[in-house]
Amino acid sequence: MPDWNPEIRQRLAGVKLETAREAAIFEELAQYLDDHYAELLAGAASEAEAYRQTLAELSGSELLAHELRRAERPSPQEPIVFGTNRRTNMIADFWQDLRYGARMLMKNPGFTLIAVTTLALGIGANTAVFSFINPLLFKPLPGVTQPERLAQVSRTYDGHGFSEFSYPDYLDYRDHNTVMFGLAVRRGGSFNLNDGREAERVEGEIVSGNFFDVLGVKPERGRLLTPADDSEGGGDLVVVISNGLWRRRFAADPVVVGKTIKLNGYDYTVVGVADEKFEGIRAGAKMDIWVPITTLRQTDLSRGELDDRGASSWEVFGWLKPGVTIERANAEFSTIARQLEQAYPDTNDKDGARVDPDLGMDPEVRMLLRQFTFIPFAAVGIVLLIACANVAGLLLARSNARRKEIGTRLAVGAGRARIVRQLLTESLMLALLGGAFGILIGVWMTRGVISVLPNDFRDLSFKFDFSVDWRVLAFTLAASTLTGALFGLIPAMQASRTDLVSALKDARSAGSRRTGLRGAMVLTQVALSFVLLIAGGLLIRTLRNARAIDLGYQVESLLTARIELLGQNYNEAQGRMFQRRLTERLEALSGVQSVSLAQYLPLNDGRSEMGMFPERDGRRVQTFRNIVSQRYLETMMIPLLAGRQFNENDDAQAPRVAIISETLQRRAWPNENPIGKRFTIGRPTDGDDHLPSIEVIGVVRDIALRYPLDPAGPALYLPLLQNYRGGIALHLRSTINPEQLAAAVRREAGALDPNLPVYRVALLEDHFTAALTPQRLLTQLISGFGLLALALAGAGLYGSLAYSVSQRTQEIGLRIALGAQGRDVLRLVVLDGMKLTILGLAIGLPASYGLTKLMKSYLYGVSLTDPLTFAVISATLLAVALAACYAPARRATKVDPMIALRCE
Amino acid sequence: MQSINAQKFERELKKGGAELLVLSLLEARPRHGYELRKLIETRSDGALKFNAASLYLLLYRLEKRGWIEGRWVEKAGERRRRFYKLTKEGKKALAAQRSIWESFVAAINRITRPENA
Fold it and tell me: Domain ends where: A359, A389, A414?
């Protein structure tokens, strides 16, 4: 048999193949040629003929050669990986990196434990903050179809704010806009529910007929409301009840549809039960019933509200048509607002409209919450950065220890990219491990945050679902991955730059660059923790100042409670009688100093803003308004500055009177004595004499209205005797303990009317505490995270110094051998650490200003550059740094010069 | 039915045809290079012939593509041979090529059939 190899070799010359591969191809082709040659011979061809014909099989080998050259070209510098010489692909590489990484992490359990713990704390803090705001900002409204298409419309005044609309305004927007499929309207309402058993106070919504249609809610039983229920002069009173109420009150009775229940004394027919998931359009506020707007016309809830363009209490939302952007919707609603302003200057002066995406939360609250959550997010971001710098420092130190290993891998041909990838995989594994524990820490921290919330907020937390969902997991995963890349990249790049020769010789000439980087990591940690500690310090000072704030009234020893007469078939005369008798009974209790009634509680109740018009002026002055009984100023202890209080003679028959606050005086009658001045509510027009003229009889001090730390706004007080309200808040100042007093209030009210629910019983002090929740929450979060940051930075400094001492054993030994005293060595190491710390402080100083500026609106009575805070925090940080330096420095003094010098 | 444009026509004719032959023959069982050559020759009654260079060009290309997989097999008393077998991807490719081929042949038939038939 001829040897075909030379022929094959000649024809495939120039194809540079791997030896093994080349041999295989040669063998295969030769085998083929052998077969063919043998067959030709068997077919009686001559040897020469067979040889010639067999060689012809190789004609056209240029193409084969070309194909082999193209397909089998060896990659320029194939990475050599331990334990294999086969070609590897990305996935195999990655798998190998993972296994190798896992081995390395398990080989150094101490290092792994410290790094994972540090990262878990950093990532966990982020997870905690995220899972806290997740249900508030990100989870969509449950039970609603396509929540992303829903948009909220709010009224602006002078370009600002998020107010409600009047019903006539709503009708105009509904009928004239072209950007929404349906524009619906709602208003909250409380109802006394009575079905023959114990009376219950339920929260509900008064809604337009298209409400459920716009939201795309499905019924569980019966039907939901339709536009027909809403037609003017509509038929029977109907109600849709929530799934929760159906189960709780009616034991999920399947024949509840068609039943009659009493709401606020009127008979309503239950037409349906809403879908289980749907609980109203305010996330966290569970609604139990929905009644159509016509209810207002048929019951005495109305008081002409539906026809009054000045009565703005309706929240408007709609379903954006496909392709309509928020911007376009905004433009169109603004145009309609301008048309309404021109048509109705009395009521719509300066009124505008804005459209915001998302339902589920008061857009103003949402905006405030976004601003608010930015601060804790910035704080936990800083904590995470510190954790990153900390672990990066550890990795830098460890990469020094691994120089020999890395040098070996470089020497046997691993590319730099390959080494970086390996090290990054290890970092990523650390980060993901940290993330996994971070979720646990996050859950635990979220619970902690919820537990420091005041009671009424904690009740909310039952309605909000703070549990871990895919959003939280995705967030944590993203945070972990980013973290791994962040802390892993610099050390990996640095390590792969290892100088082969010195690494393999095990020389200790650790690059000064690496030491510099480690120093930079420590410095970053000090600077960042300084920023957080300053922020925490300023907040602590704020909270302290806020507790001592002068609200303009005394919150201590004041019990408040609400009573709603409107739902109990009281007419005005009966209502007045009830209010007077209840006040008398409560005043008669021993220990009660004074009792008064008011429409709104400060620091708690919704705002009631309105326009007042000083006579012979024509300007409109916007003011908060409260309707109060005679002894209100006395009960609240609001000082009277001029004029007189209301008394029992200021009744419905007497001339109309009012008391104003200092700020309202300055706005309405600047530099004038306001006593005896007159104004109207609503703009007087020619021939319109039914607007009563009201006389100012007194001026009182400004008080904090909605938020304790807000600058006081204008306030107007009208007497209850002249402005009857059925829903009122009781105010009792007393020396009795709150529980006993609350029981007494219920007893006295029950003696007058056993069916009357007394609700929201609380000390005004509790409302005050609750109003400071954002500050307290921020203070606890930021100072907590600040302490965590301090601990991490301290540990980072300690680790860095301990490592550098171990690296400098030889140098220190030499110094001691040459006569350096323990004192000198101590100073050497401590100075090293303190230099870094002081440099960190110097960088943190301007940086802290950046963060604190963001939270300016949450600070009170303390300047952004409060010297006391800066001094205390700086001293604390220096002390911690000194402590962190001390142990490594002590160890340095113990270096035995003989051993140190011999150890090379 | 898949539409066939002129370019595809030519390409399929030249390359796909050869690929289809090899893939079809490997469908039943693994075969070595020379066996393939012989089968193509005998089954086409000598009308289709490959030489070693063009056959291995094709085999290496298909192998590189992952449609077939070569493996050395030793049998007692014989030299070892490299057998090629169809991979999962190869089976898919074969099915696709077959349907293209059938469309192609059907199209040709429709055109080349005498008009009055």
Answer: A359
pLDDT in tens, A840-859: 999 998 888 887 887 887 88
Cβ separation of A24 and B82 shorter than 8 Å?
yes
Residue A511 has pLDDT above 60, yes or no: no
Residue of B nearest to A27 (CA): B81
Q: Which B residues 24-63 touch A at CB under 8 Å? A: 32-34, 37, 51-54, 56-57, 60-61
Query: What does the block give as tokens for A787?
Result: 């302490």
Question: pLDDT category, A512, cuts 50, 70, 90?
Answer: low
Whether residue A216 has pLDDT greater than 70? yes
* CB pair distance less than 8 Å for B56 and A64: yes
Q: Whole domain around residue B34: which residue ranges?
A: 6-109
- Name the residue type at position B57: L
Dist. CA B104–CA A271, nearest whole Å: 67
Do A184 and A278 lie in one domain? The reply is yes
Instruction: Tell me if B57 and A64 make a contact (CB, 8 A cut-off).
Output: yes
* Partner-chain contact A67 B61, CB within 8 Å: yes
For A62, which residue in chain B has the nearest alpha carbon? B53
Assess whether A383 and A346 both reside in one domain: no
Q: Are residues A426 and A534 in the same domain?
A: no
In a domain, B58, yes or no: yes
Q: Do residues A607 and A723 share a domain? A: yes
Q: What is the pLDDT of residues A526-581, one digit of tens each?
A: 999 999 899 889 989 988 888 888 888 888 899 999 888 876 678 889 999 999 99
Instruction: Select from A457, A468, A465 the least CA-distant residue to A435.
Output: A468
Mean pLDDT over all residues of chain A?
83
CA of B113 vs chain A CAs: smallest distance (Å): 36
Confidence (pLDDT) at A11: 83
Residues of A in contact with B64 (CB under 8 A): 71
- CATH number of the domain to which B95 belongs: 1.10.10.10
- Establish if B87 belongs to a structural domain: yes
Neighbours of A20 (CB within 10 A): 9
A178 and A305 fall within a common domain:
yes
- By CA distance, what is A71's nearest residue in B? B64
Task: Give the count of domains, chain A.
Answer: 5
Name the residue facing A56 among B32, B51, B64 (closest C-beta): B51
C-beta of residue A714 within 8 angstroms of C-beta of residue A551: no
Residue A270 pLDDT: 93
Domain-ending residue, one of A359, A378, A397? A359
A8 touches chain B (CB under 8 A): no
Residues A158, A13 within the same domain: no
* Position A481 in a domain: yes
Task: Say yes or no to pLDDT of A89 above 70.
Answer: no
Q: What is the per-residue pLDDT across A399-415, written as a single tens digit (0 to 9) for each?
A: 777 777 777 777 777 77
Residue A516 sits at the chain B interface (C-beta within 8 Å): no
Terminal CA-CA length for chain B: 23
Return the pLDDT at A300: 60
Q: How many domains does chain B have?
A: 1
Please report whether residue A512 resides in a domain.
Answer: no
Spatial contact of A582 and A748, defined as CB atoms under 8 Å apart: yes
Which among A35, A67, A71 has CB closest to B34?
A: A35
Is B115 contained in some domain? no
Q: Is residue A244 part of a domain?
A: yes
Per the structure, the complete domain to which residue A688 belongs is given by: 566-755
Q: From CA A553, how far away is CA A114, in angstroms rounded?
A: 53
The reply to whether A214 and A68 lie within a common domain is no
Residue B1 lies in a domain: no
- A91–B contact, CB cutoff 8 A: no
**Whether A47 contacts chain B with CB within 8 A:** no
In this structure, of A282-286, A287-291, B25-29, the range with the lowest mean pLDDT score is A282-286
Tell whether B14 is within 8 A of chain A (Cβ): no
Whether residue A67 lies within 8 A of chain B, CB to CB, comes out as yes
Q: What are phi and psi of A665, to 5 degrees?
A: -60, -45
Task: Number of A to B CB contacts under 8 A, please give it.
Answer: 54
CA-CA-CA-CA torsion for A890, A892, A897, A902, nearest 10 degrees? Answer: 140
Residues 66-85 of B with CB under 8 A from A: 72, 79, 81-82
Same domain (yes/no): A748, A817:
no
DSSP sequence for A813-852: HHHHHTT--HHHHHHHHHHHHHHHHHHHHHHHHHHHHHHH
Q: What average pLDDT does range A818-847 have in this prediction?
A: 88
CA distance A406 to A384: 29
A388 compared with A194, residue with greater pLDDT: A388
User: Residue A518 domain-assigned?
Assistant: no
The yes-or-no verdict on residue A602 having pLDDT over 70 is: yes
